[in-house]
Design goal:
The chain is 40% helix and 22% strand. Strands 7, 8, 9, 10, 11, 12, 13, 14 and 15 form a 9-stranded mixed β-sheet that branches. The chain is an alpha/beta fold. The protein folds into 2 domains: 191 residues, 3-Layer(aba) Sandwich (Rossmann fold); 161 residues, Rossmann fold (3-Layer(aba) Sandwich), CATH 3.40.50.2300. It has 13 helices and 15 strands. Strand 2 and strand 3 form a beta hairpin.
Length: 415
């Protein structure tokens, strides 16, 4: 005979009342979600140190503005030095961040070599990769990677409108010159491509080793029949080239036009009147007259006691892109899907409206600037804007990627 569980009416009433009381009691708060972990790998030693510091400070400024929270989750940033152009070191740091800190997102990176190495790493480990600087064309072209989004630039992207601007201003014979490595070929190649497509001619190519101290032998070679010299130099090389170009007597005789790094804000005061009249292209400018840029510049100056640079703005925008994506996903980070969300976002950035193509490259404004003295200091003054510039310019992606790469075009521009 089975035993039966018997509850008296009195006991049953007590149980029902207890259950009712529990149902009406305040719910315990849910345990806070784990923080989103962001590995920010930048250059804090070597030749790119200044760039890395500005990128770090730009990111930190944005994170402070949002209280290090987005999508209902805290954002924890792990800043790591990967040197200035050391792919193996970058990989070692990325592995450590993944294995020890269990990062959800990888970002940063100044140098192209490190970016290519990390592109393979994130593909293997299903990690979103937000590139804050490295501009190699093929990161979002011939070596397209579904884990990459780049809120910065593509090397030749801004070169294309610059080449057309040069021709439209009446220049017809160009010497092209630049640092003798991939970035130089891509930055200058994009200018040469659109310049020659419109009818201009390249009459000479000059490529100089990185770290050149004395440009006199190269300046002496410049064909005096040219009416413009189209260049890419950056950092200390840019500082020396511009000063020596003026010292050699070429300033005012043959126009000097190049990418924005030629007269970067962090070297322009040292170049001083040597840089007067130099025209460059960039996707950001300190003097942009927009509410977003004024807010960013004022906040940056207040916090760090100095003006921001292009690299500061790129770090800032890296933070904004990640935070906006987290807000859209409710804090969920899911590898490739999170990258797709980032690529779908439109950003009202200090530099202007930024969108992304299906490869993760930015579609953004391209500013033509001229060095002038403003209120007693040398500044890059915007003189023309090309809106909505994409990495393929006026070609379709297929058309563009079937053409020889700009690195392959080295030594083949003279007609």
């Amino acid at each position: 005979m089975r035993a039966r569980l018997f509850l008296s009416p009195k006991k049953l009433l007590v149980i029902v009342m207890l259950l009712f009381a529990v149902a009406l009691s305040p719910q315990q708060p849910l345990q806070a979600a784990d923080p989103v972990k962001l590995g920010y790998t930048i250059s804090l030693t070597g030749v790119y140190t200044a760039l890395g510091i500005d990128m770090r400070d730009g990111l930190n400024l944005f994170m402070e503005e949002i209280g290090h929270k987005a999508g209902g989750r805290e954002i924890k940033v792990f800043v790591e030095d990967i040197g200035s152009n050391e792919p193996n070191r970058a990989l070692d740091v990325a592995r450590k961040l993944l294995e020890k800190e269990h990062i959800d997102i990888l970002a940063g990176v100044v140098g192209t070599g490190s970016a290519y190495a990390l592109a393979e790493f994130v593909l293997k480990h299903n990690i979103p990769f937000v590139i804050s600087n490295a501009g190699a064309d093929d990161l979002t072209q011939r070596k397209n990677n579904p884990y990459i989004v780049r809120p910065a630039f593509v090397n030749s992207g801004g070169s294309h409108p610059l080449g057309e601007w040069v021709y439209d201003k009446g220049y017809r014979k160009a010497v092209i010159a630049g640092a003798d490595y991939g970035a130089g070929y891509e930055h200058v190649g994009g200018i040469a491509k659109t310049f020659t497509n419109k009818g201009g001619k390249v009459i000479q190519e000059i490529w100089t080793p990185l770290g050149t101290k004395d440009y006199a032998p190269y300046l002496a070679k410049i064909d005096r029949n040219a009416d413009v010299v189209l260049v890419f130099f950056a950092g200390a090389d840019a500082l020396r080239f511009v000063k020596q170009y003026a010292d050699y007597g070429l300033k005012g005789k043959i126009a000097l036009v190049g990418k924005g790094y030629l007269v970067d804000d962090n070297i322009l005061e040292k170049q001083a009147d040597s840089a007067e009249g130099v025209v460059t292209e960039s996707h950001w400018c300190l003097l942009l007259d927009t509410p977003e840029n004024k807010k960013f510049v004022d906040a940056y100056k207040k916090k760090f006691g100095r003006s921001p640079t292009l690299y500061s703005e790129q770090g800032y925008l890296t933070g904004k892109l990640i935070a906006d994506a987290l807000n859209k996903t409710g804090g969920k980070v899911d590898g490739k899907q999170f990258v797709e969300v980032m690529r779908s976002i439109e950003l009202n950035a200090p530099r202007g409206l930024v969108k992304f193509d299906k490869y993760g490259a930015p579609i953004q404004n391209s500013y033509i600037r001229e060095v002038k003295k403003v209120d007693g200091s040398w500044q890059n003054v915007p003189i023309q804007t090309y809106t909505g510039v994409n990495q393929f310019w006026k070609w379709s992606p297929d058309e563009f990627m079937k053409m020889p790469s700009y690195s392959e075009m080295k030594g083949k521009w003279i007609q």
